[in-house]
Specification:
single chain, Arc Repressor Mutant, subunit A, mainly alpha, globular, 3 strands, 153 residues, three-stranded antiparallel beta sheet
C-alpha cells in the first residue's frame, strides 16, 4: 500500500486539471465581465442557451455541473438584464423553459466571437500539435469522442 506521506497534491492529476480549468476560466472571465458585467455562472447559462436553445434550469445544472442555487441566481440576474425569458413548460407546469431574448442572442454572438478568439490564442500559445493532443486527452477523460483531427486540415 502506498505511503500517504508520498502524496503530493501538486502532482495529483485531478488537482492539476482543476488548476488549469480555473486559470483559463478566470482569464476568459475578464472579457465577459468587462464587456457585460457577467459572472461565470451567468456566462455559462447564456452560453448554453445560445448553443443549445431553450432549456430548463435543471438541464443547465446538469450540463454545466453547477449548483441549482447558483443557476437560479444567474437566471434571475439575466432575466433582470433582459437577456433571457422564462416560460412555463407545456409538458410540466412546475418547470420553466429558459430562452435568450433578442438582446441575449446578440450578447451571446459577441461573446462567442470573443470566446473563439480566446480559444485560438490559447491554442496558439500551446502550439497546434500540443493543443490537438490536449484536446484529445481531455475529451478522453470526459468520455467524448476525439474531434481534434478533422478532414479540413
Amino acid at each position: 500500500m502506498p505511503d500517504p506521506a508520498d502524496f503530493d497534491l501538486e502532482r495529483f492529476l485531478p488537482y492539476l486539471l482543476n488548476q488549469a480549468a480555473e486559470a483559463t476560466s478566470r482569464s476568459f472571465q475578464a472579457s465577459y465581465k468587462a464587456a457585460y458585467g457577467l459572472t461565470r455562472t451567468q456566462w455559462r447559462v447564456l452560453a448554453n442557451l445560445g448553443k443549445f436553445g431553450a432549456m430548463t434550469a435543471r438541464d443547465i445544472c446538469t450540463v454545466t455541473h453547477t449548483e441549482k442555487t447558483k443557476v437560479s441566481r444567474a437566471v434571475a440576474a439575466l432575466e433582470a438584464e433582459g437577456l433571457l425569458l422564462r416560460s412555463v413548460s407545456p409538458t410540466d407546469r412546475r418547470a420553466e423553459i429558459l430562452s435568450l431574448t433578442g438582446r441575449g442572442a446578440e450578447v451571446f454572438s459577441d461573446l462567442g466571437k470573443r470566446a473563439l478568439a480566446y480559444d485560438s490564442a490559447l491554442r496558439s500559445e500551446l502550439g497546434m500539435d500540443l493543443a490537438r493532443q490536449l484536446d484529445g486527452l481531455l475529451r478522453r477523460l470526459i468520455g467524448q469522442p476525439d474531434t481534434s483531427y478533422s478532414n479540413d486540415e
